[in-house]
């Protein structure tokens, strides 16, 4: 049977227009069950609105989003649900889904989020206001509401709101949970407050919450997937500036699965920040070289990832130091110009390797799209092998060039790779911010491939003692499914 290749913009509202996110039915049985559990925590005497946003599987691109790379994401079946309800007492409450025998709740007056002149308070006013459990979830919900008002997507609050958040996403696996919470909060609040939304403006709010409220220097790709992703579809996002670059519908016989390795390193965010800082140090040096030589660099638009590999190798690589003390860099060049990171004068930064990861990763993402498209269009098995090799190369670069690998994900990828294309398993790689978390796997949906994956996961569990959880399914984004009126 011939499999047709489909490249299109997601079926969600176009970025140029605004869309009202209310009254569209929400997804399948698993999603409906989550919605039913969440709304129990709201009163049943007035209208409630619920929105569901999926987690994301980072297939290619990953951390290179902040240097302009092409990022390829697919939605997960695991998701976040946010239900909201208006209230008359000038308070905002956030309740997180039951953990154990109860639910963690936060309640604050609107005045804590709004200054006396009606403007929204700085992000610092919301920090630390979460409950003792799942602090990031409460912070994301409050941040989404506050930043949504600040951005003009939501009206200034009058009365109050009750917000309840539930999630089937793993807490610390790097599956885009924070962006999903914020996205679902804004979509549900917009429905309750009768406001239309512009998708990329919502994604910008999600990014601001992660940057300013959670201190995570990330981009918008996670949020775009949570808002506009469609089931079993690879979403292409070109970053800096953020723009949709189309999507690729996966045929039924081809799987992109996520496997949570059960471990995320405690210093993951710190390491991620260090890699970002070093990459922007490299960018600053390249910018100085270009301007010093006075030679027009046709491919240079200030985004590191969009340098061609050839230009980088021939003109810049050997002129970038392998490592440098933060103090020495500051003394000679000053800060990098990146608003979300600062150079630690006492630190040592591996500038060259961190810089070149981003150049090569963007190239790999583009090649991956070409290989995957060819495989789908012409049933070219060799193209799947090539796509898988690009994933393995990305995994190596995460660990060796960026220092964002982990013993567990290396073992898991090696065990999966051992079965190889003969078992219909083509590629695997660490995803997201690295340092553990989720491994993305490219494979056929055959009994042979599924048995091979099960065998690899069984050996992983026996050797590490950590449970490896397969993240199955693929749900629509919050603006694709719409909000539900209950």
CATH overall fold name of the largest domain: Ribosomal Protein S5, domain 2
The CATH class of the largest domain: Alpha Beta
CATH architecture of the largest domain: 2-Layer Sandwich
Instruction: Output the radius of gyration.
Output: 22 Å
- Number-wise, the strands total 15
The succession of helices and strands, N to C, reads EHEEEEHHEHHHEEEHHEHEHHHEEHEHE
Percentage of residues in strands: 15-25%
Number of DSSP helices? 14
Protein model, in words:
This protein is of the alpha+beta class and 486 residues long. The protein folds into two domains: 7-251 and 476-485, Ribosomal Protein S5, domain 2; 268-354, no CATH class. The protein has 14 helices and 15 strands. The chain has helices spanning 29-39, 110-113, 135-150, 177-192, 199-213, 221-228, 268-293, 309-316, 326-333, 351-378, 381-400, 407-419, 447-464, 478-481, and strands at 7-8, 49-60, 70-86, 91-96, 105-109, 161-167, 233-238, 243-249, 254-264, 324-325, 348-349, 425-430, 436-444, 469-471, 484-485. Strands 1, 2, 3, 4, 5, 6, 7, 8 and 15 form a nine-stranded mixed sheet that branches. Strands 12-13-9-14 form a four-stranded antiparallel sheet. The protein has a two-stranded antiparallel ribbon with strand order 10-11. Strand 4 and strand 5 form a beta hairpin. It is globular. The relative contact order is 0.18. The model is unreliable at 1-17, 20-27 and 125-134 (pLDDT under 50).
